[in-house]
Amino acid sequence: MKLPLSLAVASLASVATAATISKRPLVSPTAAAERVWQPTARQEMFDVSPDGKLVLYVNWDTGNLMVHDLATGADRDITRKGTYQQSPDEADGGVFSRDGRLVAYEWWEGRTRQDVLRVSNIDGTGIKDFYRSPGVSVWPIAFTSTGGLLAVLDSAKTRFLVIIPGNGGKPALLKQLSPINRHLAAVLSPDEKFVAYTEPVEDFKRDIVVANVSDGKEITRIRNPADDVPIRWTKDGSLVFTSDRNGSPGLWIQSMSGGKTTGSPRLLRGDLWRLGNVFLTAKGQFFYGVQAGDREVFTAPFDAMSDKSPGPPIGVTGKPGEQYSSATFSPDGKYVAFMKREREGLQYNKLVIRSLSSDETREFLPRVFAPSRPVWIPGAQAILLQANNQNGQPSLFRFDLRTNEAKSVVSNTSSPVAFAPDGKTMYYSPHVAGDSSPRRIVAHEMASGHERVIYTAPPNVYIPVHAVSADGKTVIAMSSGFAHGRVVGGGPYGIRAISIATGTARSLTAGIPYDSTKQQARAMGFTRDQREFVVMTGTDGDKTLSLWRVPLAGGPAVAIGHAPTGIELTGSGSTSPWLNADATRLVYIAGTTRLELWMADEDALRTTPPARR
Fold first, then answer.
1. CA 268 → CA 109, 251, 265, distances in Å?
2. Which residue ranges make up each domain of the chain?
3. pLDDT digit string (tens) for 466-500?
4. Which candidate, 269, 304, 263, places its Cα nearest to that of 284?
5. Cβ contact 346:10 at 8 Å
6. Would you place residue 20 in the very low, low, confident or very high pLDDT band (cuts 50, 70, 90)?
7. How far apart are CA 339 and CA 349, in angstroms?
8. Which of 10-19, 46-55, 140-149, 554-563 comes out lowest in average pLDDT?
């Protein structure tokens, strides 16, 4: 799929920091606040209708744009394209019109790999292409009073904030954006004379810039060391924004005149911990997302040779409810590395390293955007991260834990990786022009950059690497169906042991009694003697998942027992081993996080005009 607006890189000065985790309070709703919806983790909210009755969201199980009725609890499908198996297309973001009758949304055509801006009625009828241009991604921000759209146009080299006229004319340029300004927020003033938008500064935080719509010239800049994000303008021309300038996330209002600030900003509501999306209606209703859940990183004692299930789990962070992902052991088994996102915002997406023998915790904010899937590099104080470069391309970066520097290793790939025992060779699956899927496994020499193909899977098979044996002779890879630029359901799912010298492959899951067309297989890690491999099978959502031990040299699989309750096959984002080097402990992520939608009345905003869009 194409790169969403919020996924890109920021080139900033330094930023890795070491810190001790401390507990912080969650949102403490007052009597004026109430929870109005609990979407699932796969339902991503993008807007609330001007009357405060509907929520626009994308269902990532299907890629459809949906509307949720807050009064009835009913959900309505706007795009109705079916499942990903029926169509690889998907919606990604959307906004309501000022009167709430229309929606504009980004539409990704999976087969043509083209981004389109679409507009339709809220019941899904009257769909029309509002804007398309080859090689350009487009994100709607707000409707104008004349039926146009404030939007971002993004190509491989340029990014523009524009107004696309409702009559289909040429977009009017408001601002050419810096390549690093990819986590953008922008709002139009009620008279549409001014636009307030964000520009990144140090440590992934943002200032608010106010510019003329007529010529794009900057009028004023709201500077603060905090992260400031404009939400909407009020009827009297004041600007409402979120900020953590008071030590906690809060809702603020700044008086404005002629596009310039007058006086100091005033706090409307503070202590909005784990704040997500924010929406305001004309009636002064303040809708906001709150990150909630019980997600945690766990370790559990495990003896793969005992034919017993893992022992009781132990929470690693002591702070459940964050968006944890991609947990993996260090080569010596003394530390666990994982990703954590505390709330919306680039500065909250961190790499965490936690000692298993003490409370020592280090948090790093790498100088790349959307870092994920950390993999330890053997023999080095470094971790390999997936992230995005300045042009928004997925890439692999070497992150030095001593200098806090991130250096690109391979561009144009989001492949999982595994390293040889000496850390000198990295194995991954590149995107190759003409291939139907990332179906090749390549050995990449870290010193020289030289690459060689060691294995090629059949067409339409995705073959992400998982681990390399201690003798450096075998690479373990998982496989799944792949079409139109994404992993698809229907399998077959499996795990293969591949000889690095000869490229011959053998299935490790052929002898396991599971339905490979529906149930998934997850590689867990080698046993202590490296002669067998541990596999987990099942489907995310199953009450119990099964663990198996499979001989690498061939032979029947041995049932070990059940996997820990709540463990995920796919949802934690990691493809690295979940067993430590001696196969005595398991690390995994369980539990859920989601954005709950809350609503509070703000009397100070009751005089606002009809809708912010």
1. 42, 5, 10
2. 41-177, 182-292+595-613, 295-591
3. 999 999 999 999 888 765 455 444 457 889 999 99
4. 269
5. yes
6. very low
7. 7
8. 10-19
What is the rounded (10 degree) CA torsion for 75, 40, 83, 432? 140
How far is it, in rounded angstroms, from Cα 11 to Cα 392?
12
- Cβ-proximal residues to 433 (8 Å cutoff; 6+ apart), any chain: none
Residue type, 465: V
**Residue 219 in contact with residue 260, Cβ under 8 Å?**
yes
CA distances from 155 to 119, 152, 371, 387 (A): 21, 10, 21, 18
Long-range contacts of 258-262 (CB under 8 A, 24+ apart): 258/219, 259/189, 259/193, 259/194, 259/210, 259/211, 259/212, 259/219, 259/220, 260/210, 260/219, 260/220, 261/220, 261/222
Half-sphere exposure of 357 (CA within 13 A, CB side): 5
Distance, CA of 251 to chain centre = 24
Block residue for tokens 């019980």: 294
- The CA distances from residue 553 to 33, 435, 495, 502, 507, in Å, are 61, 31, 14, 15, 11
What is the phi-psi region of residue 193: left when phi exceeds 0, alpha when psi lies from -120 to 50, beta otherwise? alpha
Q: What is the CATH number of domain 41-177?
A: 2.120.10.30
User: What integer is the mean pLDDT of 445-453?
Assistant: 97
The correct answer on CATH 2.120.10.30 for the domain covering 182-292+595-613 is: yes
Q: What is the pTM of this model?
A: 0.80
Say what the pLDDT of residue 515 is: 83
Q: What does the block give as tokens for 363?
A: 């948090």
Instruction: Indicate if 182-292+595-613 has the same CATH topology as 41-177.
Output: yes
Cis peptide before 171 (omega within 30 of 0): no
CA distance linking residue 173 with residue 203, whole number of Å: 28
Distant-in-sequence, close-in-space partners of 581: CB < 8 Å, separation ≥ 6: 329, 331, 332, 333
Calpha distance 508→120 (Å, rounded) = 49
d(CA 174, CA 215): 7
Q: Which residues contact 147 (CB under 8 A, 6 or more apart)?
A: 166
Considering only the top CATH level, what class is 295-591? mainly beta
Tokens of 515: 């339905």
Q: Do the Cβ atoms of 572 and 22 come closer than 8 Å?
A: no
Give strand pairing partners of 532: 551
**Exposure class string for 173-204: b at 16+ Cβ within 10 A, else e:** ebbebebbbbbbbbbbbbebebbbbbbbbebb
Query: In whole angstroms, what is the distance from residue 534 CA to residue 538 CA?
Result: 14
Query: Is residue 378 a contact partner of residue 401, using CB atoms and an 8 Å limit?
Result: no
What is the reported pLDDT for 391?
72
Residue 435 has pLDDT above 70, yes or no: no
The torsion angles phi and psi of 598, rounded to 5 degrees, stand at -115, 155
Q: What is the mean pLDDT of residues 114-129?
A: 95
For residues 342 and 562, give the distance between their C-alpha atoms in angstroms, rounded to a whole number: 31
Q: Which residue has the tokens 């799944």?
A: 480
Q: Which residues contact 334 (CB under 8 A, 6 or more apart)?
A: 355, 356, 357
